[in-house]
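#help-structures

NK: newbie question. if I give both the sequence and a SMILES, will the prediction place the ligand too? trying with zinc ion
OV: yes, paste both and it writes out the complex. here, I ran yours:
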Amino acid sequence: MAFDANVRLGRLAGSRGHAFDTAEELLDVMDALGIARALVYAALARESDCARGNQLLQEKISGHPRLTPCWVGIPHRESPGRLVEQMNACKVPAMRVFPNTGHFSIRPWCLGPLARALADAKKALLLDFEGPAWTDDRIDWEGVRQLCVDCPHLPVVVCGITIASPSNYRGLLRECKNLHLEISQLACPGETRRLAGEGFADRLIFGSDLPSRHAGAPLTLVGLESLDEGSRRMILHDNLAGLLTPSGIAVESPQPRAIPRCSPIIDAHVHLGGWNHSFADTGRAEDALREMDRCGISAIIATSLWACFGEVALGNADIAAACSASPKRIHGYLTLDPKYPADARQQIKQYGQNTHFRGVKLHCQTHGVDISDSRCAGILAYANERQMPVLVHQTQISPRPWKDICQRYPHAHFIVAHVGGCGPDNGDALELVRLAAQTENLYFDIAATRNHFGFIEDLVAHAGAKKILFGSDYPLMDFGFELGQVLFSRINPQDKALILSGNARRIFQLSDNDLRLT
Ligand SMILES: [Zn+2]
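OV: that's the protein plus ligand as structure tokens.
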């Protein structure tokens, strides 16, 4: 059972109904996920009124000992001494600040007086940079360093690290012993195990960002990672419990919950080739196979990042080699760049008879050619003739071109990657999702879409489970992290099996012989 450092209570502007109004609602969800305790803050305190929000939090969680209050603060708003006195009176062990939302600096000349008062009172400080985009690193790391050095006895927890952050925090973890990282977006493959191996297991803090994001992702990430049981417990529970009880009060460390399993699993959106934000041991076929084994993935359909970023011939050759070396585990997309029609024709000629290539990939964003551009026509006609899936990373998600394209190429199966880049909270995406429900050959993959709590349930309700394929976007994201929102979703087992393998088997025409199913 876990102790969650990052949970919000109350309604947030723009959250479209995904909010916990009451402690009871939150506790029901925590029970279903196996989260024993949570450090909770009030949405109102983040958005508009710290004082009233913190007071509302106390009212809402009163009588619920599993919920620990975390007040929200702003530097220079009130006397740090008085604030700490109020926190003591209400038994509040931690404060959270939102420097990006609040437009203030975390450097000692701004946050210092509040941070020093918290340190003197043996409280913890959470710096929440919120990380809205998974490839951005919006954290003021030099500010984090200065604050940690200025208050060496203050436990500092940084929230909002993303897959773009690992190069930045490594040196700081060594320098600042009071620095901790909250892992709700620590999705870089193998990064938890790597950090634990470097001796930082005591600095990682489990957090979910419920209800803005699904807790299943970090729970599955930690649950499926190759960690010793002691490190797993520290990350999921003991590290946070220790920070919040500095007087050394013994905390019980409940058994972590087993991750729900499903088999087989086929991942329809995987890359081979390097990705600068990931580490050197993630881009090759052998790395993918090792991580697939760890997370129970039977097979992947892979496209090359080299090809997505322009070196199409190099990338397709790499995929062809990986497929023929592991024919039941790695299948390929032929990645084509419509900007170079002669090259695309040549690639089709070269690999057209290679049965390892089960689909076509168009990366409209990196190649800069929209799916409705006439330069795609020859490629789409090829896929139509072969009844192949076409994985499309599209730059715009208007449903209009899709209706036309799906009609014009009725035998191709179009998979809109990443659910068009966002979830059904977005109006255009919701329209596209609804179009898929009515369009035989239009599908989505859910790669890198970890979204609000209930996202998969919403997608199934609007599009139908038959239209959704599991994809991870490995090596950008960890297989386990990406599996979490499906494994922990509240959909029926038949729908789960369709998403995790049934749909992929159907449209990629993968028979038992094409897969290693044990
Ligand atoms: Zn991708």
